[in-house]
Amino acid sequence: MRVPLSWLAEWIELPGDRELLLSRLTLAGLEIESEERTRPDLSEIVVGEVLACEPHPDADRLSVCRVGLGGGEPLTIVCGAPNVGAGQKVAVARPGTRLPDGTRIRRVRIRGVESAGMICSAQELGLGEQHDGILVLDPTALPGGSLEEVLPPADTVIEVEITPNRGDWCSLLGIAREVRALFGGELRLPPVDPPEVEEPASAAVAIRVEDTAGCHRYVGRVVRDVVVGPSPAWLVHRLEAAGLRAVNNVVDVTNLVLLEFGQPLHAFDLERLADRRIEVRSARAGEKILTLDGEARELGEDDLVIADGRGPVAVAGVMGGADSEVGPEARSVLLEGAHFAPARVRRTARRLGLHTESSYRFERGVDPEGVRRAVDRAARLLAELAGGAVLRGAVEVLGDPPPRTHEILLDPRRVDRLLGTDLGGETMAAGLERLGIRTTVAPDGRLRCQPPSWRNDLHLPEDLAEEVARIHGYDRIPSTLPRGACRPARAPRRVAVAEEARDLLAAAGLIEAVTLSFYDPGDAERLRLPEDDPRRCIVELENPILRDQRALRPTLVPALLRAARRNLDRQAGRVRLFEVARVFRARAQGELPEERLRASGVLAVAEPRGLWEPNPPPPVFFRAKGAVERLLVGLGLRARFSRAEGEPWLHPGAAAEIRVGRERLGVVGELHPATAAAFGIDVPCAVFELDLEVAAAREPTPPQLRPVSNQPAVRRDLALLVDREVAAEELADLIRRRGGDSLISVSVFDRYEGEGVPEGRVSLAFRLVFQRPDRTLTDAEVTGAVEGIVRALEERFGAALR
Amino acid sequence: MVELAGELEALEAEARQEISAAADPQALAEVRARFLGRKGSLRGLLRGIGSLPPEERARAGEAANRVKDRIEALVRERREALRREAEARSLAGHRLDVTLPGAGPAPGHLHPLTRLMRDVTRFFHGLGFSVEDGPEVETEYHNFEALNFPPDHPAWDLQDTFFVRGGHVLRTHTSPVQIRVMTGREPPFRFLALGRVYRHDSDPTHSPMFHQVEGFLVDDGVSFADLKGVLFAFARHLFGDDTGVRFRAHYFPFTEPSAEIDFSWRGAWLEVGGCGMIHPNVLRECGLDPERYQGFAFGLGLDRIAMVRHGIPHIGLLFDADQRVLEQL
Prior knowledge:
The structure holds 2 protein chains of 2 kinds. By secondary structure, chain A is of the alpha+beta class. Chain A is 26% helix and 27% strand.
């Protein structure tokens, strides 16, 4: 809400120190979002009188003016405005003066005539938008004086953010009350009683409240012989300063009162109400109304409407109808003030997507006791500003009693205990009283507190504790550290595993990314996922912001591929990113989706060779697998890799699935060329994605030591020629099985194909280490074991020693 | 005797010359053998002294031993010189440009939000707060109703919500973890929940996904003053000892009294989150007696803290995975 401070000052005396005022309001919960001046400081601009005005000898559209400044030699000023004329009082910027936009005025020659300054337009002075000529001042302005003395004083407008519990703050009155509570003083309310004529309002209109749950109170006043026209300048300025547009004097009066008292009002053209009848009722299914904004709207039974003899003429508390709008020809006005059920107004406003100044206030709750006062105030202003005759009395109809504030019994010791203060009942009672909460001390020391009608947010002792704290000042509450039992802090295994995974992948040289959890279902196609792939069970959003973010991701891969693409576009030589985050999978209707913790990474190699790296470089698959191995070992998982099946987004020849026991953890592989193309990746690229839930489900057990032996170890290297399709791990498995107890380690240390190796075959070199815990092995024992192994390899795989 | 002395002198001179000419340890060993070995020249010379008279024999023996010692010393010296030369040659042959980078993969990096969350966790671990976890897709019950959001109330507008098709919402804050942790358990509670939250909001200063840390403490006699003390200490831990903290009255459905928290940062107030005493309706909803227990809760936005900590100008950079950015942080 926008509050001009000069206006507020009419209602309550403000402290001289504006900073203090704003900071106290902010701490009390009225957050000042912005503070702006209504116009710039114009003390350097002077009032001038145009003594003479003649056409420029050399330019059609320019005039040469002699401008008097009250004394001394008049200035010669060249002016281009069409509306300049002799005798006018104008705003003059002399050479050396700075305009609000920062331009400095200089003495210049314009087509041969020297101009000693500038006659300013409203826009040049920061006073308005129009630019149809110079600003012409009131003829009584004194030449030579500062423009500041002629203009209405500059004002400061603060924009206040109002929390949804404080409907009462949505008005000048509410903010003035808060100022009073903080700084003291007396409220100065504007007069409300209208002058009345003899004829009673009850004869002019009939009002009935049918939906008594939706409308607690309806007050109508009738003003006759209204002359609709523009509002006076002060009213227009007020509304504009508060951010509203002036329409005509009748509408402007209702808006002014809305700002003053927070009570939304509506004005009907009484002549246009069928049967001069008002009925407050639920809309009938299918009923329609053309609202003031020109939209035809269909209503439902939950919507509360104001109807006349024909049908709805307003959506209650939200917006009036176009048919009964007060136009220039209106003569009789029905002023409506009401108290509608907040939840009803909110539902309708939301359903219609129609949020107005009125619905905003009704949703938050207006003072049920303030309806009549606001209607009276508006009637009085109509009499003053539109020459209306106010009919005698108001037609007031009650529905169900409005929600009322109830007395709250407050134990001061509990409040002190909650706040950690030592205020005592007396101090609390004094503070509450300043907020208009009537407080008496009961014999047992407790406080009986009766909140005022406008505080619909106060129900519990805790609510009052907040009021006590606000008035006392949050900054004056002490700071202590909690006492009480302190147990050892811990974190769930899943959280710990996520952190370990991040450390391990960063240690493997990867860079952690955090990307948005959203997903484009079209990615299923880009990943070439089969129709029955579980990754197609996605969680879709009802109200996405962007089309390509309309679901939650079932895999981290697409976001990382896009990140890779962006980094390649930025000329990254190597992309090496990982992310640890949740993926989502829809479950049965009504159930929460499954959320699983995943670690995923992408490596893309645009610059294949780096310093100290082997030449030729390893396939990018092995770079990714290296990171995965470090992760698995670090997490204490003994995993097996085998050729991946059923992953059409990965290269069929360069993808492995990763299993721990019987559980499949994930995959690592190079991208399938079609997937790479779909994501715009044109360099070697490998990805991995691992489910960390398996690791999280395992209780971490300390690794158990297998004794090391000090007996001499015997090393034997075997270079084997095998078919290309035979996996090294299969050979190693067989070697282990046949090697007996004394074979303690098997590793591949070389792989070679090419010259010297037959087509379709590959040479794999294994290093075998034999050792016994109890004694030295004999050469014959080792040789015997190796021969057995070689025989088995020959038989099973057709392997030949090289 | 005079004759022998002359021969010894000549032998020593010869040995000295050959030793200094020996080019490597091998040649030196040969020279030594030639002079001092069993079939060496010195032995040959001594063979003749048996014919000398006893007192001269002793003198001659002594003279021969002195020569032998001196030759041995020359050999030792030459051997050491050769070793030093060889070492110098070998060192000269291995001379690296030590300014070149080290081998192995380039260093990895943790995301600034990860590092901040760990920092936060460590601080609160020290105060006995354990970490808890909750789902990112939440029921409306946990996200709103149990947290005392009144039905059809503008409080719902405070948190622009993503709705999931078929029911549920993306959690708009980490507060639902309060409900999940407190329901069915007995205080004292000291818990922390960190993670992703979502709001239907996207502009240069807002991301539809961001990060929060929720902390709550429920016990006998926990007060707003305790809440202030904890957050003061936390602010100083994060931003240094002269950091100011400001509590502004505010409204949240799930706390009463409620406040918004600002930390001072380079002369301005940085809004970091909300806090307050847990609303009695929330405690009651979790099966706790508000007459007996009091507690506080706070929820802080982590992204903005990470941004000001590292001088990151806009929130989009946190989620863009730009290696040029992440490698610096």
